[in-house]
Amino acid sequence: MPEPSPASPAPSASPADGLRFAFGTLTVLPAGLTRWDRPAARTGMLCAPLVGLVVGVLAAATGLALLALGAGAPLAAVASVAVPAALTRGLHLDGLADTADGLGSGRPAEDALRIMKQSDVGPFGVLTLVLVLLAQVAALAQAYGGSWARGALTAVVSAVAARVALTLAARTGVPAARPEGLGAAVAGAVPVRGAAAVALLAAGLLAGAGAALGAYDAVRAGLAVVAAAGAAELLLRRCVRRFGGVTGDVFGGVAETAATTALVVMSLG
């Protein structure tokens, strides 16, 4: 869809437009994406945590189904990690690997961005993927081993926290490293106050969900979102300094960093 001219700005996007943009760009789920402009990107990235909720519920349901069929906690954990990867076509994991290769290359920004666009995965990317996936499976296995309900909550918290990080990364003031691609489409699209409000709302709602399991789980769920946002912010700032802005790969790396951090926090204690 061609971008509107400055003299004819695009109309504001409805919540339905935002949901279509969010699900259409962040998952493989059929969404009927019809708008690809800044207003739709703004509303869509504000809706990103809702995408995380759907992904997290599907991941938790898969893990619980395997447990009900007699599988152990490790297999349920693997399934709960595999579902988000499948629903995103592995794009977030691919972005994490490419970001690791770019950061680890030690090359100037332009060369690092070129390395990130290559189809192969370098040693930094492989090592990062292995460690991150091991951490995610280990944390979920511990959660499912403690109780089925805690495992399901952990899967949901991780998925929502990952998308909260995407909303925060798309806030005003964060530039795009390239003039094209998904990174450029959403970079700087979300007002800072709106992004902060979404993050606080998500943390509060997840803490409320954790309260069903006890006061400690309520605190832990809220802290998991806060810690995930903090870890993602550190990576985001490093990438902006290193590459001059964000790309679609950086968004993927931010999401996986947040998801892993949330899982680790949920496994503590």
Automatic annotation (TrEMBL):
The chain crosses the membrane at residues 43-61, 67-87, 124-145, 151-170, 182-206. It catalyses: alpha-ribazole + adenosylcob(III)inamide-GDP = adenosylcob(III)alamin + GMP + H(+); alpha-ribazole 5'-phosphate + adenosylcob(III)inamide-GDP = adenosylcob(III)alamin 5'-phosphate + GMP + H(+). Its cofactor is Mg(2+). It is found in: Cell membrane. One of its GO terms (molecular function) is adenosylcobinamide-GDP ribazoletransferase activity. Its EC number is 2.7.8.26. Pathway: Cofactor biosynthesis; adenosylcobalamin biosynthesis; adenosylcobalamin from cob(II)yrinate a,c-diamide: step 7/7. InterPro entries: CobS (IPR003805). It comes from the Bacteria. HAMAP family: CobS. Joins adenosylcobinamide-GDP and alpha-ribazole to generate adenosylcobalamin (Ado-cobalamin). Also synthesizes adenosylcobalamin 5'-phosphate from adenosylcobinamide-GDP and alpha-ribazole 5'-phosphate. Belongs to the CobS family. This is Adenosylcobinamide-GDP ribazoletransferase. It comes from Streptomyces althioticus subsp. attaecolombicae.
